[in-house]
Amino acid sequence: MAEKERIRSDASSEEKKQIDEARKQARLAKELEKIDEEDTSMFWADQTAREIIERVENTPLLKKQVKQQGYIIYDEKTPSGKIHIGSGRGWVIHDAIAKALRDQGVKARFILSSDDIDPFDKMNSDLPPEFEKYLGAPFRDIPSPVKGYENFGQYYFLQCVEKFEEFGIQAEIESTGDAYDSGLFNDTIRTALNNIPKIKAIYEEINKKDYNKFPFNPICEKCGKIGTTKAYAWDAEKELVKYKCEPTYVDWATGCGHEGEISPFDGNGKFPWKVEWAAKWPTKKVIYEVAGKDHFTKGGSRDVAIRICDQVFNYPIPLPSKVSVVEEINVKSEKDKKITDNKSKIISDIITKIYEPGKAYEFFNIGGKKMSTSKGQGIAFSEVTDILPAYIVRYLLIRSRPHTVVDFDPFNRNDLILLFDRYDKTERIYFNADKEEENIDEKERKQQHRIYELSHVGKIPDKFPIQIPLTYASNVIQVGKDEEGAIALLKKSGHLPDDISGINRHYLMQRFTDAKNWLERFATDEYKFIVREEINDDVKKQLAEQLNDKQRKVLHLLAKDLHNTRWAELDLHNHFWKVCEQEQLDVKKFFAAAYSVLINKARGPKLANFVLTIGQEKVAELFKDA
Ligand SMILES: [Zn+2]
User: Fold this and answer.
1) Which of 95, 395, 480, 541 has the lowest tally of Cβ within 10 angstroms?
2) From ligand 1's centre to the CA of 162, what distance in Å?
3) Residue 174 is inside which H or E element, if any?
4) So what's the architecture of 204-273 in CATH?
5) CA separation for the pair 464, 424 (Å, rounded)
6) For residue 189, how far is its CA from the centre of ligand 1 (angstroms)?
7) ipTM of the complex
8) What is the CATH number of domain 423-516?
9) Does CATH number 1.10.10.350 belong to domain 537-625?
10) Distance from Cα 32 to the centre of ligand 1, integer Å
11) How many whole angstroms from 212 Cα to the centroid of ligand 1?
């Protein structure tokens, strides 16, 4: 997994500093391992937060830095088109970690930057063909495909950001292009250009092949494209980069052929991706940034970026990546004795650094191929709320450890019902309102508490809010026809108090919305029904063929009982059995008859509850006329 890097130390203070830093990281890595061993029971976001705090406490530079900036939890995304829900997983993860840090009493900020100065390198199916002419240009310099947005990049990015409130994501939104413009990257650009051999060595060490690129891409002064320029010389004195806008440099865009010399600073261009990733960390003072698996492959962008960050920019690489020194070979020759630290001891001849990129977050999708935005790519973050409420998606992500695959299929049997039921259970556990509370061990209870706290969108209510299971809400809304009708039914059946206001009303309405959405999109036929208004002549004819005398007799008996007595659910259920036994009717045949009369189906929701939901009087009428 980890790769070894051998760095010869010499007497330069910079390298000494690196060695010291590496040693500290090594000690820290050992301590962190201990934490890993001890706290697997901790909730994942809390565990990560603790690792982050430990790292900061043991790294003087970071310790000083957080006093001014806070703990910077950082993520970024190229707004190249509709953004996949998988990236949304990253946002929820970073947000949860920032919240977990704040819960541990430190000032933490989640910053999300739009990589809007990246080149447009691929048409997407939503774009009209005339957009092809923009291929190679930075996203922020391309017009928005939809009116009302400043540019292409802003349009796609805001599609997501506009949903953040619904998802409970608190992020400071930035533009990477603006950061270049304002000169924030100038120092790292200068450092990178002055250290091209080091960067080249890192690439070549990792990729085992020649690196002939330049760690900077200017924006062509003539055609405005950034994907087509090839820089080839850096004049360190004049601080100018020579470049050519190559007609055939890339196969997805055509350069104009312009040759020029340009200052690399203040937004005149950008780093290529891997160097940029490394440069962002010292520039934005990043302490934690994770990404999807594609960036964490062996020899991938994370492997390159953490080495550049450490060796070129001399900044502590952000978690979850770690660097540690595993080997120090003391060489006691007279010559090497000159290499000493301030305590006049030989420090080392060679140090071996181990870089561990850490764990990426895993694949996340909803609805598989059925829900794909374009061929096989899966659903877009901005569109997921069309099918599922954001709080349920957030809950799904928070309850799953980031390095587990989540491929949720709301069409798959009862998976969606179960997910809502689990959310409700987590909520009950949080409010100590779960009937099975005694069966939940302390560890599980704590986990569920944290899951609720970190997945709940908006302020957590002071008291246990009203809960209506999804399937029950869908029954009630179908019987009551709309929200107000449903609320009236629930009040009548004693499931709701007379006064429904504030947070309870909010929760109730949300669940009705969820239920309607579920019925419309995912529920199978067995959950859908229309309650008959009356038994008219046509229905009578139909029922005459379906029901036998015994069934009809039981229905008529029950019509009387429903008319005369106010029933509780369990008593009514038992009464059905009693009457069937008394009349020697197979209870299954009774249920079939009842559903046939009530909803013209062979099956339906649990009958006693259903009868009470519809209302005893109405059911009595229908049974009587059957
Ligand atoms: Zn050009």
Assistant:
1) 541
2) 34
3) strand 172-175
4) Roll (2.30)
5) 11
6) 21
7) 1.00
8) 1.10.10.770
9) yes
10) 49
11) 21
